[in-house]
Amino acid sequence: MTRADSGHSPAEKAELARLKNELKEGKRLQKALFELTREISLAKSEDQVIKVFAETIKELFPRAFFCIKVVDPETIELVNLYAEGHLKAESRDTIEVKRSAVERFGLQDALSRNPAARIRNRYRLVFDNSSSGTAVPLVANGKFLGLLALEYKPGEENLNRDRPVLRQVANQLALSLHHAHSVEETLFLKNYLEQLIESANALIIVTDPYRKVRVCNKAVERLLDMDRKEILDKDFLDLLPEDERSRLLRVFVSALHGKSTTNLETRLVAKKKELKRVNFNTSPLLNADGQVEGLIAVGQDLSQIRNLEQQMLHVARLAGLGETAAQMIHDMNTPLTSITVYSTHLLKKLEKGPIDKQEKERVLRIRESAERILDMTRNVMSFARTDKDIHEAVDLNKLISKSITLCDPIIEKGNVRIHSQLAQDLPLVKAISGEITQAFLNLLMNACQAVSGKPNPLIVITSNRLDEGFVEILISDNGCGIPEEEQVKIFDPFYTSKPDGEGTGLGLSIVKTVMAHHYGSISVDSEEGQGTTFILRFPFSKKDN
User: Fold this and answer.
1) Is 525:535 a contact under the CB 8 Å cutoff?
2) Residue 129: left (phi > 0), alpha (psi -120 to 50), or beta?
């Protein structure tokens, strides 16, 4: 007998041995659960989670059968199965839960989604050659994820001892499965969104709060002819021409304050300094706390559309010239006749000797007539040319005067009086001269047609500088006016109130398109029978003035 055993009764010795075994078993369980926690942190997928828990369960319950059944939480259909032992054939695909567990976890609604799921009053064994067992539902975040079943061979029953540990393992397994599902869903969503962004034909740019480009897709790369590395981490404003940056900076600041912007037309600078016209819708990018952490811009390349619009504008110009050509030729006959008559007369005089003062005046008339023809042809040729898509600082008053000159034949034919009230301190506006001239000419021709047949036909053109940073142009006539119900349609393409064959319905539509290109606006104020006023507003930069 050892010294440690001396003085103890057999009952005390048995109790001491039992306590030592429990302590040893507790340390073994503690070690196994600690290892489980460490291994779980490395597991990412559902299969990895099941594998880690299977190894731990084998270590914790080395003489037991067990199976892990994982279900789809939405349909409660079996999606994964791991078994250590031979399952009965009729038990492999079944989902059976004890009624007491259903009530404890509130699983009635979830199990009703799968007609094959069963609620049992008592546990039914699922392994061959087992004598007793139990199953614990795997529930996390209110979702039923499956079952963990544990069964014993005859003579190995120890359910009362193992049940608390089994429940602890089941809780951890449920949480790990839920986490793995969340990770998989997040990765799937991330990959899906990345593919969606990459394959989208739309231009997509995402910036951080400091305007640095963090995301761009292939459409942006193709448009700018740049590699993604050349775009990422750039200041978004660096992708714009200098004259666009202040306007886009205001949009960015608005996004940081939670405001969205739609139909924002601007230009991006491609690799070879080529300007690409685009249209963006911008929105603030919010984090999980609802705080703005950047801006997302989804846009469209307008290059092809702009090319078509340029062609349409050019055709419209030629059509407008066609309307004035006959009258212009008639007007040119007068100075040409003067040139012919006076030059013939002077040639005869020169043959006889020097010319006197009266003949000198005839020479001056020849020059004036020639200059008038040159002005006509110069304006016509300038107007007929196709413009480059470049905004330059222009004087709107000069473009108004040029438009009046181009419209002279129609004005004179209709005996229309033009009254101009042009502000002398008008700021310069960044614009494409030919497009603005086209817009003014369209409005003047419409006004001439509106006053046709009226007594004392009058068109008044006014230019003003507004305090809000706009130049305002008013073109008014005392013509027939526009019915109220038609005023909402007049800017629609192909809409016209003229008889068939007398109008394309594109004039005002073109004016609206031109104003959009220049970030301006056009509106109408009209009363039937009283006249019409078109109001055009152009933004101007104080820095350029």
Assistant:
1) yes
2) left
Per-residue pLDDT at 98: 92
Mean pLDDT for each 10-residue chunk of the chain (545 residues)? Answer: 54 57 53 58 77 86 91 92 92 91 91 90 92 92 93 81 86 88 80 77 89 91 91 92 86 87 87 86 85 88 67 58 55 64 66 66 67 60 54 89 83 88 90 86 88 88 90 92 83 61 62 85 89 92 64
Distance CA 49, CA 33 (A): 14
User: Cα–Cα distance between 247 and 204 in angstroms, integer?
Assistant: 20
Among candidate residues 312, 296, 368, 302, the one with its CA nearest the CA of residue 336: 368
CB within 8 A of 50, min separation 6: which ones?
Answer: 68, 70, 80, 82
Amino acid at the residue 276: K
Helix (H, G, I), strand (E, B) or coil at 139: strand
Helices (H), 106-158: 108-111
Is the whole-model pTM more than 0.85?
Answer: no
List beta partners, residue 454: none
Count CA atoms closer than 13 A to 399's CA, side-chain side. Answer: 24
CA angle centred on 516, ends 499 and 532, rounded to 5° = 45
Angle of helix 433-451 relative to helix 507-517, nearest 10 degrees, comes to: 150
CA distances from 536 to 268, 385, 419, 440, 516 (A): 26, 24, 18, 10, 11
Tokens 């007793």 locate to: 132
Least Cα distance to 379 among 355, 359, 407, 353 occurs for 407
Q: Tell me which H or E stretch contains 539.
A: strand 531-539
In tens, the pLDDT along 490-544 reads: 877 655 665 544 554 567 878 888 888 888 899 999 888 889 999 999 998 766 6
List 464's β-bridge partners, or say none. 472
Which tokens hold the place of 258? 């939670």
